[in-house]
Amino acid sequence: MIKISERLRSLVKYINSEDKLMDVGCDHALLDIYLVQSNTIDKVVVCDVNPNALQNGINNIEKYELTNNIIPVLGYGIEKANIYHIDTVLISGLGSKNIIEILDGPNLNSIYKLILQSNNNHYELRKFLAEKGFIIYDEEVVKDGKKTYINIFAVRGEYPKVYSELEYEFGPIMSKDPVNLEYYRQLLENYEDLLFSTRSDEIRTKVKYLEQIIDSLVKANDL
Ligand SMILES: C[S@@+](CC[C@H](N)C(=O)[O-])C[C@H]1O[C@@H](n2cnc3c(N)ncnc32)[C@H](O)[C@@H]1O
After folding, report:
1. Cys-Cys with 149: which of 43, 64, 142, 197 at CB 3.0–4.6 Å?
2. Candidate of 9, 50, 59 to mutate for ligand 1, largest count of ligand atoms within 8 Å of Cβ
3. What is the per-residue pLDDT for 222?
4. Interval between CA 48 and ligand 1 midpoint (Å)
């Protein structure tokens, strides 16, 4: 069985065997090889806009003899998703601006599940998802070296779900999970430094909100 990083492994739990999955920005396709080898899924379409990156993936797929299971596609974002009847899209290791560019288009209408892993601008990403009719079901903080990623698992909802501005910023789900206490403590420190240098009311509101999150997570940890 191929070895993959904790960052990639953290995405596996969101995938079901029935998903018609496309991994956009697959590069090496290591996650996809792991998904097939672990019997999580039998078929996956992998896509990259960069021919050299896609070739990395193709080399690995051939090395592990999975050419019947993993279909490589050269393309921009989800432009070719309809050809393969894709209903689930995974995008990992990219920033939110790039993820939004990849998803924003008519093909998103036929996508039911999104598994996204971004290392910045989570406010914009959550807001985009809500505007496009997705409900956030799970969020997870994942450390990878010096970078911190957030996994966002979202499913198309029948009724739109609207969050507050502060929930878009700090996470409607992850802010209720006690395992994230240290993450929010670190964030609070950063915002306190920012408040010290800016004296901005907007930052003050964020500091108060973060203090409330931390209080409730401490209480939940004590239970
Ligand atoms: C940092 S790598 C991430 C690789 C892998 N997903 C991971 O998590 O380790 C980002 C990959 O996304 C590809 N990419 C960037 N924008 C893209 C787009 N619009 N459509 C398809 N692939 C894209 C890049 O070529 C690159 O191979």
Report:
1. 142
2. 50
3. 85
4. 6
